[in-house]
Write a structure and sequence with these properties.
Elements (H helix, E strand, L loop, with lengths): L3 E5 L5 E7 L1 H5 L1 H11 L5 E6 L3 H4 L18 H8 L9 E7 L1 H12 L5 E5 L8 H7 L6 E7 L13 H14 L3 E7 L7 H15 L4
Helix pairs in contact: 2-8
Length: 212
């Protein structure tokens, strides 16, 4: 079982589900404050701490892109655990995350219709095979927020350098499928303001997805 941390009002009708690591947890208070600044809506954020980042968030195996750690195929197991926290049909559930957790959130929306929206902040859309997957599958969420740092495509890693093209293609595809989708560009590289970028992603869903 993964550790779970809850922020905000546990009785709120809007539930934000975020896959996190230790670094994300350190910035969670700042993220919660930013969401409250951007919207006056009541919410509960459930942060689920991932044990093995590359293994637990990857939808299928892939060779290492940076460092020596390859990607596993544990996303299905992780999603099954996350879905345990979506058992109240009267509530609205948004799933989100940063980096590979953003990719996982987007992938999860292709597996189930329980999520009303996806907050994919700087998602790892360079992930091998994901572009083709998006063209072959049908997303089951009505609203998707995508974002990327302006400097993120400017990397020497040839796989990760494709992320700019991939996220533009993803946004265009989702819009063509009549999904309520927006793409926002943030200043800086991948490691700048992850907490604030994720807050903006969730806040956009809270303000726009409920009316979609």
């Amino acid at each position: 079982m993964m550790q779970r941390f809850c922020y905000g009002n546990p009785e709120a009708s809007i539930v934000l589900l975020q896959l996190v690591d230790t670094h994300d947890l350190a910035g969670m208070d700042k993220e919660i404050e930013a969401i409250r600044h951007l919207t006056d809506m009541d919410f509960c954020l459930t942060a689920v701490k991932v044990n093995r980042w590359n293994a637990d968030l990857s939808p299928w195996t892939a060779p290492a892109v940076f460092g020596n750690e390859p990607f596993g195929d544990g996303a299905s197991v992780t999603l099954a655990e996350v879905l345990q926290y979506t058992d109240d049909s009267e509530k609205t559930y948004f799933i989100g995350g940063y980096s590979l957790a953003g990719l996982f959130a987007l992938w999860a929306a292709y597996q189930t219709d329980v999520f009303d929206g996806v907050a994919a902040a700087s998602p790892s859309l360079w992930f091998p095979g994901f572009k083709d997957y998006m063209h072959e599958a049908l997303i089951r969420s009505h609203s998707v927020y995508l974002s990327l740092g302006t400097q993120e495509p400017r990397t020497r890693n040839p796989v990760m350098a494709t992320v700019g093209d991939r996220i533009r293609e993803a946004a265009a595809l989702l819009k063509a499928q009549q999904v309520n989708c927006t793409l926002e560009w943030n200043p800086g590289n991948h490691f700048k303001d992850a907490d604030l970028r994720t807050a903006k992603a969730f806040a956009w869903l809270m303000l726009h997805a409920l009316q979609a």
